[in-house]
Amino acid sequence: MEIKLKSKWLQKCLCKFLNKKDNILKEEDLKKIKYIRIGTSNGYELQLSLQAPPQKFIPSDCGDEYECCCIYNTKRFNFIDEFIESEKWEDSYSLELKDKALENQVDIWDVEFEKISMESSKFEESLASFEPYDGCYIKEEYEEDAENETLLNTDDFKCFTELEALRFMDCCIEIHKIDFLKNLDKLRILELGGVSLESLDGLEELKNLEELCIWRN
Q: Which domain of life is it from (predicted)?
């Protein structure tokens, strides 16, 4: 079955990555994608891989605060509010990991850090990177989408049903929903930066992860 993504940029990147010369994506094509990283903090960037990341994953771009923003095996919690703090603002919700949940987890940083870092670095060799720019300027075909903050669309991520790792880095510009998580049964690793949600639909899915990172706003 053919799939037409709402994001023109994402569609084009995937077609290039998967060598789809007819620019047509099918359901089985998107099932091949195991890892997606999207960043917007220093300009838009997309990374894709057909390989699944290691069981425990510490990315090379994690920064010094990663240890304080990441927990492992959320299945050990009975309820979301044991490890997630949600706060309602005037027109949005923010999320944070609770300090108690971070303190109570087994500290892998001293025991396994070197091994995990080596395995993670090896995996990162499989990544392909894409940007929507010509030099310093966004490509003309994406200018309107960038101005309207529609270069990305969260509904598209419902199509990646075999995805195992998803990293949104500072995506508060366009990522305002996480309901798509209900479609991602294979997801193991989730990283969220700059969380500003329209609703909490999909929040329960955070209980089914091997690794969850939420950067403080």
A: Bacteria
From first to last of its 217 residues, what are the pLDDT tens digits of the chain?
899 999 999 999 999 999 998 989 999 999 999 999 998 767 889 999 999 999 888 888 776 667 778 898 999 999 999 999 999 988 889 899 998 888 866 565 666 778 888 899 999 999 999 999 988 888 989 989 888 888 899 999 999 999 999 999 876 667 889 999 999 999 999 999 877 899 999 999 999 999 999 987 6
Q: Specify the number of domains making up the chain.
A: 1
Determine, yes or no, domain membership for 67: yes
Beta pairing, strands 84-88 & 70-72: unpaired
* CB contact burial 5-20 (16+ within 10 A = b; e otherwise): bebbbbbbbbbebbee
- What Å distances lie between residue 123 and 55, 162, 199, 211, CA to CA? 11, 17, 34, 16
Tell me, yes or no, whether 141 lies in a domain.
Answer: yes
Alpha-carbon gap, residue 102 to 149, rounded angstroms = 33
Task: List phi, psi (to 5°) of 97.
Answer: -80, 140
Residues 197, 154: Cα–Cα separation, whole Å: 11
